[in-house]
Prior knowledge:
- This protein is of the alpha+beta class.
- It folds into two domains: about 5-115, Helicase, Ruva Protein, domain 3; about 135-240, Chitinase A, domain 3 (Roll).
- It has helices at about 10-15, 35-45, 55-80, 85-115, 120-130, 150-160, 165-180, 200-210, 245-275, and strands at about 25, 30-35, 135, 140-150, 190-195, 215, 220-225, 225-235, 240.
- Strands 4, 5, 6, 7 and 8 form a five-stranded antiparallel beta sheet that branches. It has a two-stranded antiparallel ribbon with strand order 1-2. Strands 3-9 form a two-stranded antiparallel ribbon.
- Helix 2 packs across helix 3 (about 55-80) and helix 5 (about 120-130) packs across helix 9.
- The longest helix is centred in the C-terminal third of the chain and has 31 residues, at about 245-275.
- The protein is flat and about 75 Å long.
Amino acid sequence: MKRYYAAWVLGLLLSAPMASAAVLATVNGDEITSDEVNKVLMEGTQGRFDSLPADKQNELRQRIIEGMIAQELVYDDAQRTGVLDSKDYKQELQVLMDRMKVQLAAKLWEQNQFEAIKVDPKEVRAYYDANPDEFIDKEKIHARHILVKTEADADAIIKSMKGLSGDKLRTEFIAQAKSKSTGPSAAKGGDLGYFPRGQMVPSFNDAAFAMKEGSISASPVQSQFGYHVIYVEDKKAAKKLGFDEVKNFIEQRLKMDKFKVYMEKKMNDLRSKAKINYSK
């Protein structure tokens, strides 16, 4: 596969080579691979593709594949009809290649400058010791919920699970979440994963963090989305992260701080030695 949506072409061509990937489709012998599709998806969602709901991911992925197939078909027809031999095509291709050469050189130059920056291990340890509050892994809970429109519906769900506990409660909650919840997490049994205090809307947050592990909310919890029945699956207390867990993160942060200072000085130096004229 050699053609991409024009808006993302530069980012794709400048990205690092990937390992061999699954072939998702072929068009007249040209392959469309999972790596190519994933690059477009990450570019198009600004790196947030993995945070989208599963159904939205599948829909978007299929749309990109179909778009790539369409571009392959158009490119093949452009070849057959002489577009690639036209003066306009050659001129615009040259302009694009000239621009890409400059941007690729700038990208690799900046990468080299960054890699040359060194951080002393003593600086990393000193930062960790001086900023203990930065390395606290906040209290988290793993919760599920069933979202319904009315308080009566939520009450009925709570009453239907009265007397259940342990695995029986969890299994029944997941089943009812899949069949009754109107929220986007219904297909996953209402699973919201782990989240820290303050991430959810206040009413949901306060109710969930006040609950015990392995229990459901005693009464419906109202929010702007409707009425929730909450199940707390697990709780993790806040803890301080060890130095070995965060030293690479600290090193990269300090390296980036040094890099910013270095680049400002470097660019000022380059500008002082260059002849720059602004058009009026």
